[in-house]
TrEMBL record:
<protein>
    <submittedName>
        <fullName>Biotin-independent malonate decarboxylase subunit gamma</fullName>
        <ecNumber>4.1.1.88</ecNumber>
    </submittedName>
</protein>
<dbReference type="InterPro" id="IPR009648">
    <property type="entry name" value="Malonate_gamma"/>
</dbReference>
<keyword id="KW-0456">Lyase</keyword>
<dbReference type="GO" id="GO:0016829">
    <property type="term" value="F:lyase activity"/>
</dbReference>
<dbReference type="GO" id="GO:0005975">
    <property type="term" value="P:carbohydrate metabolic process"/>
</dbReference>
<dbReference type="Pfam" id="PF06833">
    <property type="entry name" value="MdcE"/>
</dbReference>
<dbReference type="InterPro" id="IPR029045">
    <property type="entry name" value="ClpP/crotonase-like_dom_sf"/>
</dbReference>
Amino acid sequence: MNWQALLDALAGPGHDVQVEDEVLRGTLRFDGQDLAVIGTTDHAPIGVARALAQARAVLDTVRDHPGRPILLLVDTQGQQLRRRDEMLGIHRAMAHLGKAVDLARRRGHRIVGLVYDQALSGGFLTSGLMADVCDALPEAEIRVMRLPAMARVTKLPEERLAELSRDNPVFAPGVDNYVAMGGVRALWSPQNLAAGLRAALAASGQPDRRALDGAERGGRKLAAEVMQRVRSAA
């Protein structure tokens, strides 16, 4: 589903979201309140310019519309892989985006991430996964690292990783595996997108359940336990 169809289904003509250089920005009227919409489209690679543009949109929302909920729309092929962005400090620009989202949360903005198409690698880590809750459409594609790249990093044979991915969501791409791990809270029904957004906004005001969801769903069994042990030892 493209972003225009998604927002039209949620609000009809009740939005003014525009796209510039594959970055989405605008306002959506939903259930009687305005939401800031920020994100990317067309599988946009996230380089320095796009990371800073999204961070600017988040910070402008914090400054101009205190407390306004933020909907982060995710469609990215990951970080921009080119020398120029590396030399300009892509890691710092993407960290700045993540910190801008965290600042908004600390200032009382509820933040919902939605993977509506594709979410890969660092472009996902500093946007949708930084939200209070991250949801997805059932047809979305999510992965942080392809198995060949994972094999190079971990020094494990790709065949072994493929074998592990059949039973362990941590090693496997796919939206269902991210639901199992708790990284994605829920999948929205394409037939009732408004209900999905309404539930996500309600959940965004609650304590973070990602580690607990991962344990209950069997996709990430130890994270919640380890977190509790660290809290108890502190």
